[in-house]
Amino acid sequence: MYRSRASERRGARVLSGVLAALAILFFQVAPPAQAEPKNKVSRGLEQRIRDHAPDDQVRVIVQTHAAPSSPHFNRLHRRGGAVKRGHRAIRGYTATIPASQIADFAADPEIERVSLDVPVQAHLDLAYPAVNAGSFYATSSGLTGRGVAVAVIDTGVQGHPDLVRDKGVARLLEVEIVGSEKGLADYYGHGTHVAGIVAGNGAESSDARSFRTFRGMAPEADIISLRALYPDGSGYTSDVIAAIDWAIANREKYNIRVINLSLGHPVYESYTTDPACRAVRAATEEGILVVVAAGNDGALGSGFGTITSPGNEPTALTVGAMDDSGTVAIGDDVLAWYSSRGPTLIDYVVKPDLVAPGTWIVSTRASGSYLDTAHHDLVLQMRDYRDDPAKAARDGAYSVLSGTSMAAPVVAGAAALMFQKEPDLGPGDVKARMMASARKDDTYLIFERGADYLDVDAALQATGRSDEAPSPHAVLHDDGTVSIEDTADLWDGDWSQGLIWGFLPGYTPVWSAYALDNNEVTASGAVWKGGGSNRTKSTSTVDILGAIWKGGGGRKK
Is 369 a catalytic residue? Predict the structure, then answer.
């Protein structure tokens, strides 16, 4: 059983003060101009207060310096507030409080930060008919993910035949963070598709009549479905944090090594105070790799500065999407036009970390869900993968979707294979190896494809260790140019910039800051010093007609 190095450090009490100081130094790596204001109310919450009537109840996440006291809760109640739930991954709780009372309540000496409980949504974008949509390739390793659990925090998982296994082979467990229905359920249809990409075993497309088989990356991995999004694919940050709380608390019981988050919201505050980012960091410190979809806002303006939270957290493995052009060969694969690009707003973290297939992805269908009924032409017919004339026109067991939501579970499943092969790996080890072994293409900026295209076989053969492998910051210089922190200095171990990013030896890349600006995401149009996002939500919606893309259906030209 892997024991996280962070856990071992916490056990050494004599080092706790030193480590706290180091943590503070690390999270202040960015230049002073990037720091958050000392106001304890987040910018997103300040805006929400202005938009609400004084007596309107506002959902907030309160982070405290230590465990909140009874007098603290009494002060909350006297101001008309009420606690919704406590949290484990962060020190604090979720509450509702009248808009007019928030500013004064934030002055409470026990409070470190009060943030808006931001609505999140599944990062599902574009959906296509199943033309030339192939299944994932199998690695040459013979690994299946057996014994490794992946927690899928999403809309739930339906009891699809590709996911429900015989006892002793693999486990499919669902925990209701939202909703009261017990057992397997997915009323939206997103989580089932994501789970199939991670661990579908292809049972419904593997008989003698099937000429195409749709398997996930780790077909014998356990899936722990944490239903934290509602039937419309939306939810609240606090529900996602509650799901991360559960995963941390049950990590050893189920051997949860990976969390998949195919969801997010625009960046409104620094990752150093963002509650979702802090929860991701806590999971990483407990030995869980958190794989996060980069977001699908790449079509907004220049596309830069569109990474969503918690994909802006440095310790997360943030994944952008590729478009394989409907072919098996990788030579014609390009960055999907919807895939969000870095650097992150406010902190300028280099994201995404890498990219994976995310366009025209076939996976398990949630029959009767919202996506299944409202967009039924996303469903494959049996003729698309099975030679059975009598049933050719019937609905099949699979559907096709696109988005960074689909790219993230490709990486999560690959991580399960790596943990199966080497159980003592930590999340930083897996992240660093994936990034170093990715297939490089120097025609793209690192803010578009990160360390570049996931190569599962190469990642499984890679070596090297790094405790957390935090994504570096981009640094703005006085002359208007931008460079990045050197991974050779930032990560422990031999991780040169050339190894991670594919730069030539001795080459230090520099970009123009102004070439990365985006007038669609900040009020000033500036990514650098432009503050947080001015958008209320990301463009993560399903539209098979392509209306949200101001054009016809299919691929963007």
Answer: no
